[in-house]
Design goal:
By secondary structure, the protein is α+β, with helices and mostly antiparallel strands. The chain folds into 2 domains: about 15-325, 2-Layer Sandwich (BirA Bifunctional Protein, domain 2); about 340-425, Anticodon-binding domain (Rossmann fold). It has helices at about 15-35, 50, 55-60, 80-90, 135-150, 165-170, 175-190, 190-200, 205-215, 225-230, 235-255, 300-305, 320-325, 350-360, 375-385, 395-400, 420-425, and strands spanning about 40, 45, 65, 75, 100-110, 120-130, 155-160, 220, 260-265, 280-285, 290-295, 310-315, 340-345, 365-370, 390-395, 405-410, 415-420. A 9-stranded mixed β-sheet has the order 1-5-6-12-11-10-7-9-8, sandwiched between helices. Helix 1 (about 15-35) crosses helix 13 (about 320-325) and helix 8 runs antiparallel to helix 9. The two termini are about 55 Å apart.
């Protein structure tokens, strides 16, 4: 007999894991409500050209692509932003801006499976489109911090940079965009020597290389680091503007008085080609992979035929947040829900058991009904193994009095309770 396994890089989530995943997803939805973001749902499958347009060579090579029966080249989404940009460029083009859009779901990349990196993964995605102001960038950072705090993570930190600083230096040397993209991807992987070699071979000056080498070493946790960046790039106009933009954003975040740990890295780069401004990631000490990442991309919507629309967004890795949640042994902050099992002592009483179960569910109480015909003792063993709070034993003798036996499985005590009083008893309102 063939033993079927999951496809490599895909996973099953057992009930406890699924519970944590949905808990994090619920917190993401709550953040969307708190910040005024509206949910949209986009297809898992999109035209290859849409997803490949500005994804970066590395992601293009790792997309799940195939021809459908109509000979059209399609791909499974490796990220949400292109789909959102398509929607804004077409269906929503005449709607008032700014847009605050939220989506959540699964994404697919043909990565090498390892802890915190799988071929199917989950994200919540927030996009603020229609504002080029630093207030919009600050909002995306603040809402990300709100999610990490609501979930209950500890010691999360933000790594923040600005694509315009590095690109501004390279543009000042009139380096081709293809060279810039290749260098940024190498820097994203911390392969700085390879990046500098690529830039040098493209004809850049020794001053440019020296400036970039100093930038990638420059990092710090206070706004003073910005002044050092300004000094380094003072001869590169675009890089200086980018540094000043970063300074404005960080000042706004600080002015919010939000408790947020930030480190500025002047040489921080991300592999996605469409970023044009601030970029950031969120990390925790227990993991070497980012829990979230985002930034500004002002040219993407125009690429898909829409009007030029400035935009900033972030993707939160739901399954990575779950992993951090587990590593930190964080407790789920769920509502106090009393779980109950109803056990009829004979088949003739199954209908009455179902009737009582519906009454309790209408009262917002979680109920399982014994459906395998086991004896009461076996059913109670099962209820204890499942960590139920109460067992309701439906017997003929008690039913004649309009009552049942309610057993408190935690306190190991029981009493006879009128059927109409069961919900009150379980919720602790009486008896």
């Amino acid at each position: 007999m063939v033993e079927f396994k999951t496809v490599r890089g895909m996973r099953d989530f057992l009930p406890e894991e699924a519970k944590i995943m949905r808990y994090i997803e619920d917190k993401a939805r709550r953040v969307a409500e708190l910040y005024g973001y509206k949910e949209i749902i986009t297809p898992v499958l999109e035209p290859y050209e849409l997803l490949a347009a500005k994804a970066g060579e590395e992601i293009r090579l790792r997309m799940y692509t195939f021809k459908d029966l109509g000979e059209r080249m399609v791909a499974m989404r490796p990220e949400f932003t292109p789909s959102v940009a398509r929607l804004v460029a077409t269906t929503l083009r005449n709607e008032p801006k700014p847009f605050r859009l939220f989506c959540v779901g699964s994404l697919y990349r043909y990565d090498e499976p390892q802890q915190g990196r799988y071929r199917e993964f989950w994200q919540s995605n927030f996009e603020l489109m229609g504002s080029d102001k630093p207030e919009a960038d600050a909002e995306i950072i603040l809402l990300t911090n709100s999610l990490m705090t609501l979930v209950g993570l500890r010691n999360h930190t933000f790594k923040i940079g600005h694509v315009g600083v590095l690109r501004g230096v390279m543009s000042g040397e009139e380096l081709d965009e293809k060279v810039q993209n290749g260098a940024m991807q190498l820097m994203d992987k911390k392969q700085y020597d390879d990046a500098f070699r690529l830039i040098e071979e493209a004809g850049s000056s020794s001053k440019c290389i020296a400036t970039l080498r100093k930038l990638v070493k420059l990092r710090g946790g206070n706004l003073g680091i910005i002044e050092k960046m300004k000094q380094l790039v003072k001869n590169y106009e675009e890089a200086l503007k980018a540094t000043e933009n970063l300074q404005q954003i960080l000042k706004l975040v600080k002015a919010s008085e939000c408790k947020i740990e930030m480190t500025v890295e002047a040489g921080f780069a991300r592999g996605l080609e469409y970023y044009t401004g601030i970029i950031f990631e969120v990390n925790v000490p227990e993991m070497d992979k980012a829990l979230a990442g985002g930034g500004r991309y002002d040219r993407l919507i125009a690429l898909f035929g829409g009007e030029p629309t400035p935009a900033v967004g972030v993707a939160h890795g739901i399954d990575r947040i779950m992993l951090a949640f587990q590593l930190q042994k964080t407790a789920l902050k769920t509502k106090d829900e009393r779980k109950t099992m109803i056990i009829p002592i004979s088949e003739e009483l199954n209908g009455e058991a179902l009737k009582i179960s519906q009454m309790l569910r209408d009262a917002d109480i979680s109920v399982e009904v014994e459906v395998t015909g086991r004896k009461v003792s076996k059913a109670l063993e099962d209820a204890n193994r499942k960590k139920m709070d109460y067992a309701i034993i439906v017997g003929e003798k008690e039913l004649k009095e309009g009552s049942v036996v309610v057993r408190n499985l935690v306190k190991r005590e029981q009493k006879i309770v009128k059927i109409k009083k069961i919900a009150e008893t379980i919720k602790g309102q009486s008896g």
